[in-house]
Amino acid sequence: VERTRFDRMQAMEAEHGFHERTADQAQFFRSGKTDGWKDELPTDVARKIEEDHGETMERLGYL
Questions:
Q1: Domain coordinates of the chain in residue numbers?
Q2: Can you list the pairs that 5-12 forms with residues at least 24 positions away whose Cβ atoms lie under 8 Å?
Q3: Which of 26, 36, 38, 39 has the fewest beta carbons under 10 Å from its own?
């Protein structure tokens, strides 16, 4: 658990990069704040994700 703290993952990305980061992302691990995606993700994209995965997201407590 200690190794996967957000601040450690963010620091590791800064030092070594992160394979999952796409070319259009400045960084993969951004703010680490709860619900931070609401300020960053375009509304149409959020709606599409909820449309495609809403049932699972509700079950896991994301919605």
A1: 1-30, 33-63
A2: 6/32, 7/32
A3: 26
DSSP 63: -
Euclidean distance between CA atoms 61 and 3, whole angstroms: 24
| Token representation of residue 46 | 């959020």
What 8-16 contacts at long range (C-beta under 8 Å, 24+ apart), as own/partner pairs, is none
Tokens of 44: 């149409």
CB 10 within 8 A of CB 26: no
- Tens of pLDDT, residues 15-63: 998 988 888 888 888 888 888 888 888 999 999 999 999 999 999 998 8
Q: What is the DSSP string of 17-60?
A: --TT--TT-S-SS----TTTHHHHS-HHHHHHHHHHHHHHHHHT
